[in-house]
């Protein structure tokens, strides 16, 4: 005879799995937002100077991740949430899994990671040069 509680247990697990997948998706959005902040946050400094105090540490962290080949802590968090929600995680990092397929047809190599790190630095040095140049002109 089948337990009358078996369907209740399945019904309770489905929303929990959905919640984990939902939060994994939110981590992806947070991660993407962070990558955009690292790459383009200096542009916000042109309008709001205080953003510099948020952007500079983020840009240093982003460049450090790329130069060292480390995995951002958000990637294992996303994978854990996906696996807890019954989905499959992935073995690569965020850039390789989500961004690289959009930009490059091949996988992430060490050379590309270094290029991305240099790009972050050069882009932000240029933006901050403009910010400081504008600041010096203002009486």
Describe the overall structure.
With 139 residues, the protein is an all-alpha fold. Helix content is 78%, strand content 0%. The chain is built from five helices and no strands. It has helices at residues 6-47, 52-68, 74-84, 94-103, 110-137. Helix 2 runs antiparallel to helix 5. The radius of gyration is 21 Å and the shape is elongated. Residues 1-6 have low confidence and may be disordered.
Key terms:
139 residues; mainly alpha
Series of secondary-structure elements, N-terminal to C-terminal = HHHHH
Name the shape in a single word: elongated
Q: What proportion strand?
A: under 5%
Strand count: 0
Distance between the termini: 85 Å
- Helix content bin: over 70%
Number of helix segments? 5
Total count of domains: 1
Which stretches are poorly predicted, pLDDT < 50 over at least 5 residues? 1-6
**pLDDT averaged over residues:** 79
Task: Give a quick account of the main beta sheet: strands, pairing sense, barrel closure.
Answer: none
Q: Report the C-alpha radius of gyration, rounded.
A: 21 Å
Structural class: mainly alpha
């Amino acid at each position: 005879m089948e337990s009358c509680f078996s369907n209740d247990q399945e019904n309770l697990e489905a929303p929990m799995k959905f919640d984990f997948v939902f939060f994994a998706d939110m981590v992806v959005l947070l991660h993407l937002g962070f990558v955009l902040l690292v790459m383009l946050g200096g542009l916000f400094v042109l309008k709001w100077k205080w953003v510099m105090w948020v952007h500079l540490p983020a840009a240093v962290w982003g460049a450090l991740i790329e130069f060292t080949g480390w995995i951002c802590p958000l990637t294992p968090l996303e994978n854990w949430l996906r696996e807890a929600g019954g989905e499959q995680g992935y073995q690569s990092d965020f850039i390789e899994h989500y961004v690289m397929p959009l930009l490059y047809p091949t996988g992430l190599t060490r050379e590309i990671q270094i290029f991305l790190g240099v790009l972050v630095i050069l882009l932000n040095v240029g933006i901050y040069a403009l910010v400081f140049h504008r600041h010096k002109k203002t009486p």
